[in-house]
Design goal:
Layout (H helix, E strand, L loop, with lengths): L1 H27 L9 H6 L1 H4 L2 H7 L7 E4 L4 E10 L4 E10 L5 E2 L9 H4 L9 E4 L4 E4 L16 E2 L4 E9 L7 E5 L6 E4 L3
Antiparallel strand pairs: 1-2, 2-3, 3-8, 4-7, 5-6, 5-9, 9-10
Protein name: Secreted protein
Keywords: Signal
Length: about 190
C-alpha cells in the first residue's frame, strides 16, 4: 500500500514538474520585438495574464468572448490555442464584477463523479463542434484529475483570476466552436493554431 502511495506521489510530482515546465515555456514564447515591455507585463501577471495570450491572437487586450454567470461572475476567454499534441488550451480570466465576495459554484466542476471527487475546478466546461456534431470535454490525467484550473473557492469583488482548460482538439479543419460552461452563457470562439 505504501508503494502505491509513493508511486502516486511520484506521478503527481512529475505532472507538477511538467506543468511548471510548460508554464515557463509559454511565458518564454511571448513573440518578437518590444522585449523591453514584456518583463513589465510579466511582473503584473496576476491581473494581466489574460491579455498576453490575446496579443498572440493579434487582438491586443480584446477577449475572444465574454460569458456572463450568476452573482456578477464574468468569464473572459482570451485565447483558444491548438497545439501539435492534439490539444486545445483555452485561457481565460474569471472576474467578479459584483459588489460582494462570491463562492465559486460547485456546478462549474460539472456532474461527473470522477471530476467532482478531485475538488472544485472548471471541469464542466465543454467545446461544441456543431459542424462535426461533437462535444469535447475537459481532459483528465491518469488519476482522473481535470486538466484545468482547480482549487477555486471564493473570488472577492473586483478580483480577477487567470484560468485555463485543456480539451482534445477537434479536426484540423474545424476552427469555430461554441464554448459552454455550467451557469454561464455560451459563446462562439475561434481556435487558432
Amino acid at each position: 500500500m505504501s508503494m502505491r502511495f509513493t508511486a502516486r506521489v511520484r506521478r503527481g510530482m512529475v505532472a507538477l514538474t511538467v506543468a511548471a515546465g510548460l508554464a515557463v515555456g509559454v511565458a518564454g514564447c511571448g513573440g518578437g520585438g518590444g522585449d523591453d515591455k514584456k518583463p513589465e507585463h510579466s511582473a503584473t501577471a496576476s491581473r494581466t495574464t489574460g491579455s498576453d495570450p490575446s496579443t498572440q491572437e493579434g487582438q491586443s487586450g480584446q477577449p475572444l468572448a465574454e460569458l456572463k454567470g450568476s452573482n456578477g461572475l464574468l468569464l473572459q476567454i482570451t485565447s483558444a490555442q491548438r497545439d501539435s499534441g492534439g490539444f486545445v488550451t483555452v485561457n481565460a480570466t474569471l472576474k467578479n464584477d459584483g459588489a460582494n465576495t462570491v463562492i465559486i459554484p460547485a456546478q462549474l466542476s460539472g456532474n461527473e463523479t470522477e471530476i467532482i471527487r478531485n475538488g472544485h475546478s472548471l471541469g464542466g466546461a465543454t467545446l461544441v463542434d456543431s459542424k462535426g456534431r461533437k462535444r469535447y470535454y475537459v481532459l483528465r490525467d491518469t488519476e482522473g484529475r481535470p486538466l484545468t484550473t482547480t482549487g477555486l473557492s471564493t473570488i472577492k469583488s473586483g478580483e480577477s483570476i487567470p484560468v485555463f482548460m485543456q480539451f482534445p482538439a477537434p479536426p484540423a479543419d474545424t476552427s469555430a466552436v461554441s464554448f459552454q460552461m455550467p451557469m454561464f452563457t455560451s459563446a462562439d470562439i475561434t481556435i487558432s493554431g
